[in-house]
TrEMBL record:
Residues 416-616 form the Aminoacyl-tRNA synthetase class Ia domain. The lineage of its organism: Bacteria, Pseudomonadati, Acidobacteriota, Terriglobia, Bryobacterales. Residues 649-771 form the Methionyl/Valyl/Leucyl/Isoleucyl-tRNA synthetase anticodon-binding domain. It comes from Paludibaculum fermentans. One of its GO terms (cellular component) is cytosol. The gene is leuS. This is Leucine--tRNA ligase. It catalyses: tRNA(Leu) + L-leucine + ATP = L-leucyl-tRNA(Leu) + AMP + diphosphate.
């Protein structure tokens, strides 16, 4: 028997693993089936946190298991290294973002190595390196060629604190995602956009391909985010002019009930129609931050003094401007039908705008609308030639009429907007274009990539991108005419970096292309992606979009990058999310020092099913440490045992094979690692009980198999045990033990049966049989039946597996 010296064991193997770059390499020669395990790459914020430890423990356990199952496993790691925090830290601590980032990476890499995670470090990717970000630029140019990257003046979300533009997804409750109390303002800027909306339909359709492997909750979130809506666009006339106002409606069948047209405050026509006092009112409405919270918005609006003409019936209705009409959805203008729409009803009631019902229930008359609108489909009434039609038919026919007469058409609208990728920040990928006074916007030619991020910049955190204040970066020559020109000074959103890094892992040193299609193809789609549900929309949607663009460029063959997605729960302390501000962070380093990485891994896997939140509980960590210690001792004690009669061999082997069966099934069906570890604890208890009676051969066999079983969960201890019991390593390159169904079979149970408290027979029931099954057997037993002799049964009292007592009358 040997003591379990976790520090010594782990430091020793950690050094040996780190020194051997071949160890965790994907062989990639096609001799074995491939398996790609991918975990979301960390932002190098400084230190690993428990969320990382959990995410990477899950991934590492899976990777090691798949190695043992005989797969050629690709298990890479990298750094999502561009982004604002580096820049903010730089401003605060007077350190260069690059230096800050690189020293964080060095530290966190050490922590990952200390945890014993099995990564193929030769494939390490860091997104802030020119060798990586030049391909962001390359992709950007390909997207420009395809009109998928474009510039437009737009109102953008602006965080005064960050002094930068935010993507819609970075706005939470009207505030900046990084500054929870800083309201986001609106600014007009020329911005670069990626046309993700061109793929909206495919992003929805292709969900079929991943439905089986993704959490349905994530797909639902994406579906809602894309927000497809089928309806009609209709041009109202601006009375007294030949200008048109295009509205989007899902209920064109209600258009005879439209009693006003309402514009979004940002609509260009709003500015045109408002003068003097109205213009002041309009500006206030544009800047009003309460609009960012549509759920609780108090609907407000004002009449412009102008009128619109309904193209179906020539009716003239007033034009209003209201805060609840969104610019950026549909056409930014609506027809209000208060009789049949909730929001319109509320608004029109408030302002005394007339209410005209035009839809009746299928089985009732047209009702006066007084207290609530009738929002269902029904039969169209008071609508000229369309009267009498069911809503659905009217929608179709009326859309067709709009098209015929040139005042509209059927249309599909998405909530999804194009992806604004411009950032007025330093620490990101420079957008590879040049602005020439003569030629306009000129893409930087491929052979001039990368456009390098200069290192000598002044970071103020204010206003324009620091690159705009860097003359030697800014001033350049036009690639087209050779004249003086200026570089674009915006950098790319960091979500660009993380949209394709997992392709680069497969071919990380390629300097001709982002990757060679043939090299990458056999590894895709990724077999298993693991990460936080916080990325359900942003990162995962962008990655899906990027994959489709790469497919259309001819770089990849798959429509979808990730076949299976797993979203792990959070690590909490006493039910609360760990955070610096709450001061309840458990530091992984301290835990590793005290209990060892293996124990930390075991605990994070044991404490909860991986998809659920888990609570950090130090006494339960200690429990795992004791378990590992007992296991270590049992194996070292029994591996070279020489004594034992063998009377408990069958019993020990049965438990062993049952445990193999259980853990294998846990791995293959949704990773119930917590129950796997519980099964291992049970096995160890059974083995300790059986130990004295086990024969030397069986002791040795069980010791070896137990080592293999613990290997994916506690790799250091397993590797040490494997060497200690005289086997050749590494342990995770051994085959995962198979279970023998015969050996795993339970012995039958013998259960005594009593009648009125006296033993009258015995039944043989299977292990794990239910109370009901055991009662049924007892009541069918011939001896027992003979004794009951037809007398009525009052009740049956059963201690499952132990006793059945039948109480009869008489
Ligand atoms: C008239 C109407 C009558 C409408 C009716 C609905 C019911 P979804 O399904 O979410 O796509 N709408 C259109 N653009 C809007 C905007 N920019 N801001 C606010 N509301 C807008 O909703 C589409 C419906 O939302 C449209 O159909 C329009 O109101 C409103 F009985 O038009 B409807
Ligand atoms: Zn901010
Ligand atoms: Zn030029």
């Amino acid at each position: 028997e040997k003591p379990y010296n976790h520090q010594e064991i782990e430091l020793n193997w950690s050094q040996r693993w780190t020194a051997d770059p071949e160890l965790y390499k994907a062989v990639n020669d096609g001799t074995k089936p491939r398996y790609y395990v991918l975990e979301m790459l960390p932002y190098p914020s400084g230190r690993l946190h428990m969320g990382h430890v959990r995410n990477y423990s899950i991934g590492d356990t899976l990777a090691r298991y798949q190695w043992m199952r005989g797969f050629d496993v690709l298990h890479p790691m990298g750094w999502d290294a561009f982004g604002l925090p580096a820049e903010n830290a730089a401003i605060k601590n007077n350190r260069h973002p690059s230096e800050w980032t690189h020293s964080n990476i060095a530290h966190m890499k050490k922590q990952l190595l200390r945890m014993g995670f099995a990564y193929d470090w030769d494939r390490e990717v860091s997104t802030c390196e020119p060798e990586y970000y030049r391909w962001n630029q390359w992709f950007f140019l390909r997207m420009m060629e395809r009109d998928l990257a474009y510039r437009k003046v737009s109102l953008v979300n602006w965080c005064p604190e960050c002094a930068t533009v935010l993507a819609n997804e970075q706005v939470e409750n009207g505030c900046c995602w990084r500054h929870e109390t800083t309201p986001v303002e609106q600014r007009e800027l020329v911005q670069w956009f990626l046309r993700i909306t061109a793929y909206a339909e495919q992003l929805l359709d292709d969900m079929k391909q991943i439905e089986a492997g993704w959490p349905s909750q994530v797909l639902t979130m994406q579906r809602n985010w894309i927000g497809r809506s089928q309806g009609t666009e209709v041009d109202f006339g601006l009375a007294g002019t030949d200008q048109k106002i295009r509205v989007f409606t899902t209920r064109v069948d209600t258009i005879y009930g439209a009693t006003c047209v309402i514009l979004a405050p940002e609509h260009p026509l709003s500015k045109q129609l408002c003068e003097g006092a109205l213009a002041v009112q309009l500006k206030a409405m544009v800047d009003d931050q309460s609009r960012k919270d549509p759920e609780n918005l108090v609907k407000e609006g004002f009449f412009t003094g102008h009128y619109a003409v309904n193209p179906y019936n020539g009716a003239t209705v007033p034009i209003w401007i209201a805060n609840f009409v969104l610019w950026g959805y549909g056409t930014g203008a609506i027809m209000a039908v208060p009789a049949h729409d909730e929001r319109d009803f509320e608004f029109c009631t408030k302002y005394g705008i007339s209410i005209v019902p035009v839809i009746r229930p299928v089985d009732g008359p047209l009702a006066i609308i007084a207290t609530e609108p009738f929002t269902e489909y029904g039969i169209v009434e008071n609508s000229g030639e369309w009267s009498g039609l069911p809503s659905a038919d009217a929608r179709k026919l009326m859309s067709a009429r709009a098209k015929e007469n040139g005042f509209g058409e059927a249309a599909i609208t998405y909530r999804l907007k194009d992806w604004g990728v411009s950032r007025q920040r330093y620490w990101g990928t420079p957008i590879p274009v040049v602005h020439c006074p003569a030629c306009g916007v000129v893409p930087v030619p491929d052979d001039q990539l990368p456009v390098l991020l200069p290192s000598d910049v002044e970071l103020t955190g204010q206003g324009k991108s620091p690159l705009a204040n860097h003359p030697s970066f800014l001033n350049t020559t036009c690639p087209k005419c050779g004249g003086p020109a200026q570089r674009e000074t915006d950098t790319m959103d960091t979500f660009v970096d993380s949209s394709w890094y997992f392709f680069r892992y497969v071919d990380p040193k390629n300097d001709k292309l982002p990757f060679t299609p043939e090299t990458v193809q056999p590894w895709f789609p990724v077999d298993q992606y693991i990460g936080g549900v916080t990325h359900a929309i942003l990162h995962l949607l962008y990655s899906r979009f990027w994959c489709k663009v790469m497919r259309d460029i001819g770089l990849v063959k798959v429509d979808e990058p990730f076949k299976n997605l797993f979203t792990q729960g959070m690590v909490q302390l006493n039910g609360q999310t760990m955070s610096k501000s709450k001061g309840n962070i458990v530091d992984p380093d301290e835990m590793v020092e005290k209990y060892g990485a293996d124990t930390c891994r075991l605990f994070t896997l044991f404490a909860a099913p991986p998809e659920k939140n888990m609570d950090w509980n130090e006494s339960s960590v200690e429990g795992q440490y004791r378990f590992l210690t007992r296991l270590f001792k049992w194996v070292t004690r029994n591996a070279d045992a020489t004594e034992g009669s063998g009377e408990t061999d069958a019993q020990a082997l049965r438990k062993l094979h049952q445990t193999i069966r259980k853990i294998t099934s846990d791995f293959d069906n949704r990773w119930h690692f917590n129950t796997s570890i519980a099964a291992l604890m049970e096995l160890l208890n059974a083995l300790q009980a059986a130990e004295a009676g086990m024969s030397p051969a069986v002791r040795q066999e069980v010791a070896a198999k137990l080592t293999l079983l613990i290997a994916p969960f506690a790799p250091y201890a397993a590797e040490e045990l494997w060497a200690t019991i005289g086997r050749t390593g590494p342990v995770f390159r051994q085959s995962w033990p198979a279970f023998d169904p015969e050996l795993a079979k339970e012995e039958a149970l013998e259960i005594p049966v009593q009648v009125n408290g006296k033993l009258r027979g015995r039944i043989t029931a299977a292990h794990g049989s239910t109370k009901e099954e055991q009662e049924a057997l007892a009541l069918a037993d011939e001896k027992v039946l003979a004794f009951i002799a037809g007398r009525p049964i009052v009740k049956v009292i059963t201690l499952p597996g132990k006793l059945v007592n039948i109480v009869i009358k008489g």
